[in-house]
Amino acid sequence: MTRSSTVDAASVTLQPQKLIQGERSRAKIDVDQINVFLESSPEKRDQAQALMTELVSDPILKTDSSYYGRSKREEREDTARKIVRLALYMEHDIKTARKHFKGTDLVEELQRSEGEDLKNESDLVPLTNSDVAIFDRRLSLLHNMDPQVGTRLGVHLGLFGNCIKGNGTNEQIRYWMHERGATFVKGIYGCFGMTELGHGSNVAQLQTTATYNAESDTFTINTPNLPATKFWIGGAAHSATHCAVYARLIVDGRDYGVKTFVVPLRNPETHQLLANVVIGDIGQKMGRNGIDNGWIQFHNHVIPREYMLSRFTKVFPPKSKGGKATVKTQPQLDQISGYSALLSGRVNMVMDSFRFGSRFAIIAARYAVGRQQFGPRGHPETQLIDYPLHQYRVLPQITVPYLVSPVAFKLLDTYYSTLDELYRVSSPATFDKAGLVVVSKKLKNLFIDSASLKATNTWLVADLIDQLRQACGGQGYSSYNAFGKGYDDWVVQCTWEGDNNILSLSSAKSILKKFAASRRDGIFDTGLDAESFSYLEPGFIHDVLKTGQNAEITLEQLPDYSRVWAVALVRFLDHIARLVDSTKDLDSVAKLLVLVSKFHALHSMLKAYYDKLNSPQDSHVSDAASKDALWDVYKLFSLYFIDKHSGEFQQIKVFTPEEISHTVQPQLLNLLPKVRKAIIPLTDAFKMPDGMINAPIGYFDGDIYHNYFDEITKQNPTEVDGAGVPPYYGLLTDLLNRGWEFDHALGGSARANVLKKLGK
Amino acid sequence: MTRSSTVDAASVTLQPQKLIQGERSRAKIDVDQINVFLESSPEKRDQAQALMTELVSDPILKTDSSYYGRSKREEREDTARKIVRLALYMEHDIKTARKHFKGTDLVEELQRSEGEDLKNESDLVPLTNSDVAIFDRRLSLLHNMDPQVGTRLGVHLGLFGNCIKGNGTNEQIRYWMHERGATFVKGIYGCFGMTELGHGSNVAQLQTTATYNAESDTFTINTPNLPATKFWIGGAAHSATHCAVYARLIVDGRDYGVKTFVVPLRNPETHQLLANVVIGDIGQKMGRNGIDNGWIQFHNHVIPREYMLSRFTKVFPPKSKGGKATVKTQPQLDQISGYSALLSGRVNMVMDSFRFGSRFAIIAARYAVGRQQFGPRGHPETQLIDYPLHQYRVLPQITVPYLVSPVAFKLLDTYYSTLDELYRVSSPATFDKAGLVVVSKKLKNLFIDSASLKATNTWLVADLIDQLRQACGGQGYSSYNAFGKGYDDWVVQCTWEGDNNILSLSSAKSILKKFAASRRDGIFDTGLDAESFSYLEPGFIHDVLKTGQNAEITLEQLPDYSRVWAVALVRFLDHIARLVDSTKDLDSVAKLLVLVSKFHALHSMLKAYYDKLNSPQDSHVSDAASKDALWDVYKLFSLYFIDKHSGEFQQIKVFTPEEISHTVQPQLLNLLPKVRKAIIPLTDAFKMPDGMINAPIGYFDGDIYHNYFDEITKQNPTEVDGAGVPPYYGLLTDLLNRGWEFDHALGGSARANVLKKLGK
C-alpha cells in the first residue's frame, strides 16, 4: 500500500497527524521561550540548535533506523569511524572557541608550543575548559543519538585525560596530553585501568601491583591473579595505546596503596600489543556494544619510573647505588584528586539525563496524542492522552527532563569552576594553601551533589524509558522506536562510575553527618553549604523539628513545592538519626539512606528550577502563559514524587493520611488535565530534530503510522527466495510435509506384527 | 592465565566457591523437600527434573554463552531448527502420555481417525489436555532457556489452536487441528491475526473486513487501509501457512462485528505466498528476535464460507438464487470464547514468572554470596550478602518466585478444568444450558484472576530482573550473565496478550463491582467466589469497615500476613467507592484501580502459598527447619510489599505511621538476616541445571571468576590481525598518526602570508 492510496481523508479515526497539528495550532504557550529556559540561555540555545543540526546532517555521525539491530562487530567499526570524524570537528571547535582560524595553525602550534620547542613559561597557552567547551557539548549532544560514541571517546578524553590532569605534574600533563597529542586524539589513545574483575567500588583494594626496581629505576606492573585482571576497560579491547593504570605502589616491600601510572599497551603505529601485555575482548554487553571494553593482564611489564603520575605522590630513586628509594606523598589530596577523574562522568550523566529523558518524553507524548483507542460508540476513538490513567503514566515522566535541566547546567558550571580552582591552587606557580582548604570543601560538596544527582537521575530516566515504552504499547517494543536500545544503552549509567546504591549511601552518610553537626553544634557554612544544603541551616532544622506539625506546608504557595522536600529531609534525617542512636548500626538504615540521597536530589532539582524560573533574568520567560505552564510542570513533579513517597511522608508526619487523600492526590489529579493541554508544545519545546529522535512514532509531523510503516519496510526488504520466504524455509516445509518420524525411523519395527516375532 | 596458575589457595579473599560451598555445608534445611513444594508434587517434581535434563542435554535445544549476541537472522533460523526438533519430542510426549508405544503408530492413527476414514463417532479418541500435558510442560520449561522458541511455536499451538478450539465447530476443530495436522505441527502452521497497526487492545474496533459474497458463497478478506494492516503477527513473516484472522463480518452490508476466519497465506509445500496476500517482516525488536513477527495485508483475498469459525456465529447461504443470507449468532458466548484464546497465554505467563524469576534469583544469590567487597581492614572482604542493603535488595526478590509458584500451579489447573468444562457443555452431543451459565461465571472469575496475576507477576519479574542485574554490578551488564537478554525478552510480557494496565483496570473494575454487590446486596457466591475473592465475603467487609481500626492485624500470627492484604483490599475498595460516588468518574480513580489489581494478586499469592504450606498433605514439607524457612519467605514477601505500599496502608489506615515505624519496618529488617542464612539452599532448591541458568556468575559450583572468564575468552577468541588488533584497526592507526587535517586540507591557504596576498 502506498501512502496516498491508504489514507481515507474523511475518516474520523486514525489521523494522528491531524490531532498533533491541531494541538500545536491551539497551543497558547511560547515554545521558543521555553526552549531557552530548558537550554539555560539564548547563547547556549543557539549553540545547542546549531550543534544538533550539524550532528543530524553529518553523513558519518547521523543515525537512522538502520542504526538498530547492528552486530557488535558493525557497531565497533561504526563507532571508530565516528570517532575519526569527531577528531575533525574537534580541531574546528577548538579554533572556533579560540576565535583563531588565520595565520599559524592553532592546534599544531598548541601541540608544539608545549614540547621541546618551549622557550619560556609565558609562551604557554594551554587549553582550558572553555577551549574545549564546544566540543564537549557536541559530544554531550551526540550521546542522545549514539551514546556509545561519546563514551568510547569519553573514556580517552574524560577518564584517561582527567586521570592525568588530576594526578600528573604540570609537566606530565603537558607531555602526555599536549605534546604527545592525547588532548587532540593524536599519538595516544588512552584507556582507564581502574576496575578489576574482583574489585569495582572498592578501589583501595585493587590488586594490580607497580613494584619499584631501584637498580633500573623502573616499575614492574603485574597482575598477580585472575581477579586482579583489569576488567571492563573501555577502549582496551581494540583502541587504546596507553592505559592509566591504578596499581598498588610497592617500594622496598612497602605497600603505599593505589596510585596511578601511564602504561603503554600497543604500538600506536602498528597497533600490535607490546610484550608482557595480554588483552582480550569482554565481548557482548546488554548495550553500548560499540565500546570495546576489554580485559588486561600485565606480566612483568616494565615502565620507566617517570610514568608514574606524581602530582601528589612521588618516588625518588636512591641517591646512591644500593641506597633506598624515598616516597613523598600527600595522601589526602591524592585521594581527592584520584577520585576526581570520575567526577566529570557523574556530572555529565546528569546532563545526559536531561537530554536522554527528553528524547523519550517527546516520543511518548506524540504517540499518546496521535494514538486513539476505545471510546464512546459513534465517536472518533479517544486519544490515549485523554485517559486519566495515561496522563498519570506519561505526564509526570515528561516533567522529569524539565526538572533535571536547571540543576544539570548548574552542576556542570560548578564542576568546571571548582576543577579550574583546584588546578590553580595546587599548581607550583600559583600554590595557595588556604585556597586548597576551601576547594577541598567545595570538591566534597560536589561529590555529595554529583553522587546524589547522578544516582537519582540515572534511575529516574531508566524508569522513564521503561514506563514510556510501556505507554507506547507494542510499538514501544519495536527496535525502530528507540526504547529498547535506549534502555539497554542507558541502564549501565546506574552501575558505572559509581554504582548508584554505593553513591547514594556515600552521599547520604555525608548529609547525615552534616545534619548532626548542624543540629548539635550549629555548624553550617553559609558560604559553601547554603546552596545545596540549605535545609540543614540550624534555624530551619530547629523550626521543623520543634513544631511537630507539618511545618505549615499547605501546598498553596509555589515555594512550598520545594520546601516540602526540605521539611521531609529534616524529618527523615531526624528519624534516621534516632534509629542509629538506638541501634548504633549505620548499615541497618542503609535502605533509608538511599532515600535520603534521592530526596536530596529531588529537593536540589526543585530548588534549582524554582530559583531559575522565579528569576525573570535567568528564566528568559516573559510570556505569562508559558510561565504558568512551567509552574504547573514544577508542581506536578513535586506532587508526583510526594505521592510516590507518600509512605515516607506520612510516616515522618509531613502529611497526615487525610492530607494525602484530600490535598496531595486531588491536586495531582487536577493538575494532570491542565498539563495535558500543553503536552505537545511542552515536548516540542525540547526542539529535538527527528534525526536525533530516530523513532518514527515520535516524529514532528505526527504521521505515526506511515512513518513507522515506511521504516519497517525500508529495513526489511522483500526476501530473495520470494516474498515472505526466508532463506531457511526448507526447514519449515520439511517440518510441515514430514512423515511420522518415529514410525519411519524405526522402519516399522514397533508394529504389532514385528514385535510379536521379536517377542517370541 | 590458566585456572590453576592463577589461584592463590592461601588467599583469604576472592574464593567464591569456598564461600558458596560453605553455606551449603552449613545449611539446615531440606532442599529436596522444598523443591517438591515449589514443583507442586513429587510427581511433577520428577517430571520437571527429567524434562530439564533432557532440554539442557539436547544438542539442538541446549543453550550456552554463544546464545548471546546472535543476529536476528541467526536467531530466526536457530528458532526454526528448535521447533523442528520439538516436533519430534511432541510425538514422543503424546505417546508417553497415552502410554502407547506399540502396535499402530498412535499419532498417525490419531490424525487419520478423524479424517475421511472416520467410521463412527465412537472411534474418535481426540487429544485431550492431559495428552499434551507433558509437551506443554516441556515448552514451558524451555521458555526459561530460550523464550522465543516457546512463543514462536506457542502462537501456532496456543493462539491459533485455541482460536480454532474456542470458535470452531467440533468438525472444524477436528479438520484443522487433527486431520490437517495442526495439532502435530504438520500440514499447517498457524498464526494469530488479531492485532492491527491501529488497534491492539480495542479488538471490537478492528478494521479488517470479511465480506460475504452470496453468488460464490465465499468471503472476501480485505485490509481497507494502512492502520488495518495485521501487525505484530508472530509467525507471519516467515513461518505461517494459515492465519486465524479477526475480521468484521459483513453480510448484506450489515456489520456483525469481529469474528474469526481460517485464512490460507502460503502454499505449505513451496512456502510461497498466495495471491492477494501481502506479508512483510516487522523486523528488529527489543527482544525475542527469533520470533518472525510480521505484518499482513489482504487485497480481495477470497476464502470459502466454510472457513469461518462457526461455533457461535454462523452464516447460512441464501436458500435460493438472489435470496438473502442469514446469520445466526450467540453474541455473549461468542465474546467469551473469542477472548479465551488469550487466556492460555496469560495463565502460562504466571508460570513463566515463577520459572524466569527463579533463574535470576539463583544467579544473584550466588553472586551475592561469592562476591566480596569492602570490609574491615585486615579481614577478608565482606560478602555482598552480609550488607543489610544488599539483603534488602536481593532477598525479597528471591521470595517472589516462591510466592508465585503455588498460585501459578493452581491457576493452570483451574484453567484446564474450566476449559474442559466449557468444551463439554457447549458441544452439541453434551450441551448443557445450566452448565453453560456456571462455566461462564467461572470463566469470568478466571479472567479476573488471570488478568490480575498476569499483570502483577510479569511486572514483578521485570522489576526482579532489573533489580538483581543491578545487584550484580558490572557483571550483570555482561550479556553472558543472562540479565540483558533476559530483560529484553521478558518485558514484552507486560504488553502482549493484554497490556498490563488495561488488564489491571479491567480486573479491578470487576472486583469493584463485586465489592459493591457484596456490600450493598450481600451478593456473594460461596461456591465460586470464596476461593479468589474471599475478602469480599459480606460479613468480612462489614467487620473491616465497621471497626474503623486496623481490624486487629498485629502481624503476630501467620495468617495475618495474608489477611492484612484482605483488610487492605476492603479498605481500599471502600476508599475508591467513595471517590467514585463523589466524582461519578470511574476513570479518575484508574491509578488506584491498577493498585487494586496488584493487591488482589498479592493477596491471592499469599493465600495460595499459605494454604499450601499450611497443609501437610499439599506442602510435602515435613522437615521443621524447612517449614520455618518457608514461613520466613512468606512473611518477608508480605512485609516487603506492605512497606513498598506503606503509603496506601497508612492512607487507608490499615497501619498507623507508628505501626509502620515500630512493627512493619523492624520486622522486615529482622527477617532479612534470618532469610539470608538460607539464601543458598533456598535458591539451590529451584534445582535448576547450569545449562538452563546459562550465566557463569550463577553456576552451581560457585567458581564465579573462573567460570565467567572462561566464557568470555571462549566467545571472544584472539583476533586474526593480531591479539587485540581489530579488523578495522587502520581507522585507528590513521587517526593517531594523522597530520593536522585542516592545515593539510587547506594546503596552507589559511596561513598569514597567503591571506595577506589574498587580502590585497
TrEMBL record, chains A, B:
It holds the Pfam family ACOX_C_alpha1. Residues 560-735 form the Acyl-CoA oxidase C-terminal domain. The active site is at E497. Pathway: Lipid metabolism; peroxisomal fatty acid beta-oxidation. Coiled coil: none annotated. InterPro entries: ACOX_C_alpha1, Acyl-CoA_ox_N, Acyl-CoA_Oxase/DH_mid-dom, Acyl-CoA_Oxase/DH_mid-dom_sf, Acyl-CoA_oxidase, Acyl-CoA_oxidase_C, AcylCo_DH-like_C, AcylCoA_DH/ox_N_sf. FAD binds at T195, G234. GO terms for cellular component: peroxisome. GO terms for biological process: fatty acid beta-oxidation using acyl-CoA oxidase; lipid homeostasis. Residues 30-178 form the Acyl-coenzyme A oxidase N-terminal domain. Residues 339-511 form the Acyl-CoA oxidase C-alpha1 domain. Residues 191-300 form the Acyl-CoA oxidase/dehydrogenase middle domain. GO terms for molecular function: acyl-CoA oxidase activity; FAD binding; fatty acid binding. Keywords: FAD, Fatty acid metabolism, Flavoprotein, Lipid metabolism, Oxidoreductase, Peroxisome. This is Acyl-coenzyme A oxidase.
